[in-house]
């Protein structure tokens, strides 16, 4: 069996939804030899169903990158490659329901080889040596930190809970579905708190790796240059001084729309007005966040 050597880096954004990862991933894309792949852990679900479009605007089954990755996986693993089985086995790591048992799951060598081949294929086919992965899932991040600790640079992005909550109350169309209109779920208060807290707690486990940066979204937009300089220095990156919206091969997540391509990225520190929340909710979310920060120092 041929397993390709892992000779690229992955910048992995961990965080809750609605936390500003689209902005961060597109800022990081402003380097030579980078590629944005959005929530690429969804490959096994999205590619084989072929109902969504890639960030390059083609139906995912027609995108050269993902078609190439599929071909490489088949060539490498032959009859052992079963995309349905892979989808099932990675669910254990990416679905919250399982995550409290995370340490009990056997991580097979075969899954490790598969993941290395997956990321290496992305790098080889695209010619990039930095893959910007905004999968966000802390479970997938922990899995990568076990398999390829030397190759992954983690950025744990956290946004104020009340702003995240306000954003979850908005009805948003999933941009990658073109054949039918699908919406992101509008989440309940309890669900919002649960997910935000899980991401916070699990994301912090990546501190044990040497490649971990905790970033508050509010600091990113209010103090952009200092924060980006810190990230560059720590990870040895060379981000262009002129930031533009560039193309991607995003699987899920927010693609850069055609009309934005090539335009400047403008950083604004607009505060969320929290207009979809009532006073009690704002208080609840603020109190919860304050309590979490007290316990999780
Ligand atoms: Zn594509």
Q: Would you kindly provide a written description of the structure presented here, covering whatever features stand out?
A:
- The chain is α/β, with parallel strands linked by helices and 297 residues long.
- It has twelve helices and five strands.
- The chain has a single domain, classed as Rossmann fold (3-Layer(aba) Sandwich).
- Strands 2-3-1-4-5 form a five-stranded parallel beta sheet, sandwiched between helices.
- Helix 3 (64-77) packs antiparallel against helix 6 and helix 8 packs across helix 9 (189-204).
- The model has no long low-confidence stretch (mean pLDDT 91).
- The structure holds zinc ion.
Basic shape? globular
Biggest sheet strand line-up: 2-3-1-4-5
CATH architecture designation:
3-Layer(aba) Sandwich
Q: Total number of helical segments?
A: 12
Mean pLDDT: 91
Q: What is the count of distinct domains? A: 1
Name the hetero compounds present: zinc ion
H and E string: EHEHHHHHEHEHHEHHH
Beta-strand content estimate: 5-15%
What gyration radius follows from the Cα positions, in whole Å? 19 Å
First-to-last CA distance: 46 Å
Share of residues in helices: 40-55%
Which stretches are poorly predicted, pLDDT < 50 over at least 5 residues? Answer: none
- Oligomerization state of this entry? single chain
